Amino acid sequence: MSEPSDSRFMIELELLEAMYPEQVYYEARSRDLKFTEQSALLHLRVPESYPESGLPDVIEAHDASKNDLRDRVRAAVRDSWLAEGEEALDAIIAAFQSIIETNTANSQSILAETSNRSSGEAEPKRHKTVIIWLHHLLALSKRKLALSPPSTVSGITKPGYPGIMLFTGPEKDVVDHVNILKAENWQAFQVRYEGEERWEFAHGGAVKELETMGEVVAAVGTRWKKEFLEAVGIK
Known about the structure:
By secondary structure, the chain is α+β, with helices and mostly antiparallel strands.
């Protein structure tokens, strides 16, 4: 190694040791430089001609989980277009740090997702509201069936001419209840409204039968009044 190269390399090495105390280790005989970050390791071999010519070779690179990162570090060095004749150790270490940070973030994301699955954490439920218009709702058997959805579903029914049924709750439960009702023999059964919001009523949960359209409008409340009136054909 020429004196200028040796001097430049020693200065660069001193700067690295100051930047990363107790993380940079250099073995002069083998010209091996090792950088550690917790359990991650970057092992470089420095050419005798460096930094005037040649770049350090990546001998070993792995993250805390012992994943082999040599190819990724070498690719990062190539993509950085580091010029021969210039100090490059700091840039190579920075590239290695970036790779292990990305690996750590990905591992944490996968771990969190796996933990959620194993703990049985369910995805947020989708909601659904439907308004059904009927030519009439008179038969007691059908009225009782309409009033008996899963406990998660609430709503309103109005018997007579026309018949109205409004159900809101978790999407699957609402759809299942509507499908059961559809299977009955109806003179007319029209789904006039489908929305993804869950409606709230003054009577709270469950399905309540109301006698008049005015009572139904009052129970729907001002928030959903417009949607309800348009669905049942009242402007």
